Amino acid sequence: MSASTSLENIDYNNEGIDNETLLSLYKNLLKPRLIEEKMLILLRQGKISKWFSGIGQEAIAVGVTMALEKSDYILPMHRNLGVFTSREIPLNRLFAQWQGKSSGFTKGRDRSFHFGTQDYKIVGMISHLGPQLGVADGIALASKLKNKNQVTTVFTGEGGTSEGDFHEALNVASVWQLPVIFCVENNGYGLSTPTSEQYNCEHIADRAKGYGMESYIVDGNNILEVYSKIREITDSIRKNPHPVLVEFKTFRMHGHEEASGTKYVPTDLFDFWAKKDPVENYQFYLKENGLLTEEMEVTMKADIVHELNENLQISFSEEQIIPNKTTELNDVYKSFEYQEVKENEEKKEVRFIDAISEGLRQSMERHDDLIIMGQDIAEYGGAFKITDGFLEQFGKERIRNTPICESAIVEVGMGLSIAGMKSVVEMQFGDFVSSGFNPIVNYLAKSYYRWGQQADVVIRMPCGGGVAAGPFHSQTNEAWFTKTPGLKVVYPAFPYDAKGLLTTAINDPNPVLFFEHKALYRNIRQEVPTNYYTLPLGKAALLREGNDVTIISFGAAVHWALETLDANQDIKADVIDLRTLQPLDTETIFVSVRKTGRAITLQEDSLFGGIASDISALIMEHCFEYLDAPVKRVASLETPIPFIKQLEDQYLPKNRFETELKNLLSY
Ligand SMILES: Cc1ncc(C[n+]2csc(CCOP(=O)(O)OP(=O)(O)O)c2C)c(N)n1
What is the CA(242)–ligand 1 centre distance, in A? Predict the structure, then answer.
């Protein structure tokens, strides 16, 4: 630490804090500072790759963490080393994490502070900053539902408050009165952007009023003010769950990360804030009040430096990770042992929509920890009435109407999963998933691979065209997700499959996108077992058998293929209904194509980049010698899906399929 430039620049008030805690706060404050100073040296020596400095802001992370119980979850940011050290994570594990060694927390798969650990109740950030705010809501919701009396605390910088996630998360927390403390570290700059270019209100704390939320402004450099305020807030939240926004005024004394420099910061700002250094001022205060002697100070520092060096040795001497493809591939999904629940003899003819509703209802009866969330799903029963009557049966806590905030609700699902609960999120229309896209592809999909945290969320996606609903209520956007490792994608075409696959999707601890074609909802009927049963994911159905050609399809397009064959009885085809797209049942495809020698895919989405293209490529790679003709892909036009019937009919591939099928057969 540099020589002291600060004397009595911060007003400390130790009311209600015993001497032991006062000293412990100091020790915890000192530790991240000393670690950082060492890291900056290692960075200059090229021994670590990147460093996001929190020097000058330590009092916030340390004061907040020390004010919480160890059983309370914390969701920190990249400048919050003090959270990790105050929760007493062994330093060798932290260092190993930063060096990408296997005794870190992500097996070299993610860097710096991007990790979580259930052992220490810490859930680290993803680079996108905002999503963890909604994840905190989910954890807090679980604790409220289970009456756990816990407080969830989440951090963001002032830059991150400009993201939609911030607004969505605060709104949901307030509407649902969740026990969350939103900590905004206002440190003057978001990378190089000063606060004047980031927001146009006096204080970020003022925004709380708009959400109907309590808020406070705290001197983030004053460890005792941070600690006392958070204790006071947690006491009140534990008695009566509610969210609180706290804005900590502080300053970032280094660049955004070390390499990016600080040229854009006026020197007088540094001078001003240097005088308010949180460590030096507090040290001075403790010494002035006879609580800290020079000897104690020296011993404390020596102990920390010793611990630091010893643990650095351990992590530096740990071997580098040796890449192993199988290990990596096996860690994308949490392993799930499919449990078959057999169907009863008793069957009833139901519509596609009823089968989904039944599967959902019976899953709710089976899993006490399952929550359903979505817009208008409670009293109103959902846009398509799939959850009609659920509110009466399961109550308002488990059948949750949400504000219009797809990102936050997906994030809440993630948070519930972190807290050990399951959720189903209903997108009112699958098209609107784009508003929740980021947390699905970046948070849910990557969480298990990154730090072994399952994302036990099913996202229901009413989708598809043929209903003259235009470009924003008709899309079938499965290709956005089939390309993302970590997600499972289910797309049934029949009521029986829809029910059995939905129950399995809910049992599966991995994130599942469950596509439900709207045109099938009320048009397709089938005899479906009345009991709760399951069907395995990753198994296609061979609907018809024939030697002429293999037709591969899914969703509503399966019915178009069957209609075409009904009208052309002379064509003998294997018809494969994929049922799930991820995992994909390639074996059933290959066996059939090797038999027929011809393959045609029928996909409702527009052609380019759809799953049919990959299926075509897979057939070329695995069945080339068996093919008598090139694989044919039939799909929608390369335009957005239009509104009026004539245009939509032209867009969809249904009417082109017969010709293309015949062309292929005569090749
Ligand atoms: C969605 C997104 N946009 C941009 C970035 C690049 N980025 C990383 S940190 C950062 C600044 C964040 O500022 P702030 O939230 O104030 O936190 P601070 O770094 O100041 O602590 C930016 C622009 C990002 N990580 N994610």
Answer: 27
